[in-house]
Amino acid sequence: MKTDILGVAFDALTLDEAEERADTLLRSGAGGYIVTANPEIVLHCREDAAYAAAVNGAALVFADGVGDLCAARILGTPLPERVTGADLVPRLLSRLAQRSGSVFLYGARPGVAQRAGEKLKSAYPGLRIAGAENGYISDETALFAALEREKPDLLLLGLGAPRQELWMARNRQKINAVMIGVGGLLDVFAGDIPRAPESWQRLGLEWLYRLIREPKRFRRMLRLPKYLWAVMLKRIRGT
Fold first, then answer.
1. Under DSSP, is residue 18 helix (H, G, I), strand (E, B) or coil?
2. Phi and psi for 9 in degrees, rounded to 5?
3. Cα–Cα dist 139/4, whole Å
4. pLDDT digit string (tens) for 113-158?
5. What is the spatial distance between Cα 73 and Cα 9, in angstroms, rounded to a whole number?
6. What is the mean pLDDT of residues 193-208?
7. Nearest to 147 by CA among 120, 169, 126, 176
8. How would DSSP label each residue in 124-151?
9. Do 182 and 157 contact (CB within 8 A), yes or no?
């Protein structure tokens, strides 16, 4: 079932259900990509039709932000829970490790993807790291050659929004791997940035933890009231 929030069609799934659907996609070998969308992404979709097409072209779109859950409730179509990349991806890596699957890491600053790969290889015995490349390369020729050669099951893109969603949509036909845009998650995997403690996560305050650690995110947070206001107007007008 899909839940529409300001033109973005979210898959209304629990984390467990999302894991099953994503793993089915991985096992199919058909490729495709997954988007975990937060309010900032939804607002960008309202402002950019090409980006909206890229997001809605995903095989699966999950609610990454607490704001998405609030918006869905306001619209009368509640989503069951958040499905963040930080929660979903480790589950998929665990499943891949059990069947000797592979993952390729693309994104972040030079050296981060390589360190993340080393940490993941230790954390998930049996998982093959098919390759790692930083997100600052100007020529992707070698990257595509490596993807063709290694044929990873999963490609994690830490390029940040909107770049990673546009990249996945643009290259969907070239790549057989399932792709997931993971933002700054490669930095977390590398051990460079800690994730919020579980208690903060359970309270839905992971955004506050990140804001405290990265005050420069404050300007981005100012878009949340705009998002919720647009949702309330949609509910009032019924359009």
1. helix
2. -90, 105
3. 37
4. 999 999 999 999 999 999 999 999 999 999 999 999 999 999 999 9
5. 15
6. 71
7. 176
8. STT-EEEEEE-TT-S--HHHHHHHHHH-
9. yes
**DSSP 8-state code for residue 195:** P
User: To the nearest whole number, what is the mean pLDDT of the chain?
Assistant: 92
Tens of pLDDT, residue by residue over 15-67, are 999 999 999 999 999 999 999 999 999 999 999 999 999 999 999 999 998 99
Residue 184 near residue 114 (C-beta atoms within 8 A): no
Contact 58, 172 (CB under 8 A): no
Dihedral of the alpha carbons of 226, 80, 166, 148, in degrees to the nearest 10: 160
Radius of gyration of the chain (CA): 17
Structure tokens at 174: 């070239």
Q: How far apart are CA 126 and CA 199, in angstroms?
A: 30
Give the position of tokens 């981005």: 220
- Contact, 133 vs 110, CB < 8 A? no
Task: Read off the tokens for 95.
Answer: 């499943």
- Which of 138, 174, 181, 216 is CA-nearest to residue 44? 181
Q: Can you list the positions of beta strands (E) in the chain?
A: 2-5, 8-11, 32-37, 60-63, 102-107, 128-133, 154-158, 178-181
- Which tokens in the block code for residue 136? 């600052």
Cβ burial of 227 (10 Å; 0-12, 13-18, 19+) is: buried
Contact status, residue 166 vs residue 132, Cβ threshold 8 Å: no
Yes or no: say if 56 and 213 are a contact pair by the CB < 8 Å rule: no
34 forms beta bridges with 60, 180
